[in-house]
Design goal:
- This is Pentatricopeptide repeat-containing protein.
- InterPro entries: PPR/CCM1_RNA-binding, PPR_rpt, TPR-like_helical_dom_sf.
- This protein is an all-alpha fold.
- Helix content is about 70%, strand content about 0%.
- The chain has a two-stranded antiparallel sheet.
- The radius of gyration is 30 Å and the shape is extended.
Length: about 400
């Protein structure tokens, strides 16, 4: 830049400081501050804020606060964005009393709190189980003349739901248009999800009708909540009918829900059909949850060969220990040694590394079901020979000797 006669300005130096802070190189960022001041370029609030953010990311909150004092002394008072960074760090650390002090400091020193300020604090309180305090902040926010955002509304709705104040929830949603709040589909989904957890089926349907009347278009998440609610209530046939005959948009979560509850209600053929339909007709790729449900359901029916084939199909994408272990446990309980050997040979054929953790879980599974007894130990020996191959050592050599 200098070679081309272009002098770096505060924006140039601030960008460099931001990059160093994101890389965790705070000492070098301070070096840039010294450098720019030597060049006669005074740092601004957006120059200091990334350093403060870096301190907070590293849990160095006290140093962040000292930096804010330094900014005051340097004639560059922190902005509300700077304060929001500090408040977020304090909330993440559960230091809510200090957040109160910072809010009082903000009101004294001048920068007006923003919706982000309150959203950060309310969200942290809600997640920490202090929903009532979060709701109080909602009222404070309105008194400050701040317009709640969609995120604010979602937090408030969730807080009311936590305390089963569903009359407040409905009132808030009804007033959303009057107060010019954007009660979007996310807000309705928040409430419907909580109602589903509390088995308030009728209320879910009422909210669905209300959002449609207001012209709010339900999304896939909305319908997944509805499908889950129907399945839990024992209305699986209605849920299946909605998806297959009424064009409800379905994703992998939708199909996972239907397959799970089909197996749960003993409708294995429906589950198998849905698995094939989602792959071949709906063109929805099964995920690990899908295969976990399928393998568990097939094993419960005693269809161990099909369960093994299902696992082999999943192996085309990757090897999941979370999927392998329960399969081995079920095959072990039924002494399906041949299937286990097939599984491990397929793992090797697909080029995956069979590490000690996989073997340890397999041996542990067999010992749990009783194969450590002398009358059944041959099963374990046969298994290890099948996995390792004939003539391979079961015990690794060490210092020229076998460990016994």
């Amino acid at each position: 830049m200098r070679g081309h006669g272009v002098a770096p300005d505060v924006g140039t130096f601030s960008t460099l400081v931001t990059g160093l802070c994101r890389a965790g190189r705070l000492d070098e960022a301070w070096g840039v501050l010294d450098w720019m001041m030597q060049e006669g370029c005074l740092p601004m609030v957006h120059t200091y804020t990334p350093i403060l953010h870096g301190y907070c990311r590293q849990g160095r909150i006290e140093e962040a606060r000292k930096l804010m004092d330094f900014m005051e002394g340097a004639g560059c008072p922190p902005s509300i964005v700077t304060y929001n960074v500090l408040i977020k760090a304090l909330c993440d650390d559960g230091r809510f009393d200090e957040v109160k002090e910072v809010l009082a400091e903000i009101k004294t020193k001048g920068p007006k709190p923003s919706a982000v300020t309150y959203n950060t604090y309310m969200d942290a309180l809600s997640k920490a189980g202090m929903a009532e305090k979060a709701v109080e902040l909602f009222e404070d926010m309105r008194c400050e003349g701040l317009k709640p955002t969609g995120f604010t509304l979602s937090i408030a709705l969730n807080c009311f739901c936590v305390h089963s104040k569903f009359s407040e929830v409905i009132r808030l949603l009804e007033r959303s248009t009057e107060l010019n709040w954007c009660a979007a589909v996310v807000a309705y989904n928040t409430v419907m999800s909580r109602l589903c957890d509390m088995e308030r089926w009728l209320a879910i349907l009422e909210l669905l009708a209300d959002m449609i009347k207001k012209g709010i278009i339900p999304n896939t998440r909305t319908f997944n909540i509805l499908i889950q609610s129907l399945c839990i209530r024992g209305k699986l046939s209605i849920a299946i009918n909605l998806v297959f005959n009424h064009g409800i948009p379905a994703n992998v979560v939708t199909y996972n829900t239907l397959i799970h509850w089909s197996y749960y209600h003993g409708r294995a053929s429906d589950a198998d059909s849905m698995f094939e339909y989602m792959k071949k007709v709906a063109n929805v790729a099964p995920d690990e949850v899908t295969y976990t449900i399928m393998i568990d359901g097939l094993c419960r029916q005693g269809k161990f060969d099909e369960a093994t084939d299902c696992f082999k199909e999943f192996l085309k994408d990757r090897l999941s220990k979370d999927l392998l272990t329960p399969l081995i446990n079920r095959l072990g309980r039924k002494e399906r040694i041949r299937n286990i050997v097939v599984v491990f040979r397929e793992i090797e054929r697909q080029g995956f590394v069979r590490n000690y953790m996989i073997f340890e879980d397999t041996v542990r599974s067999f010992c749990t079901v009783g194969f450590r007894q002398h009358t059944e130990i041959f099963n374990l020996e046969f298994l290890l020979e099948g996995i390792l191959g004939p003539g391979k050592e079961v015990y690794p050599a060490h210092n020229g000797r076998r460990k016994r």
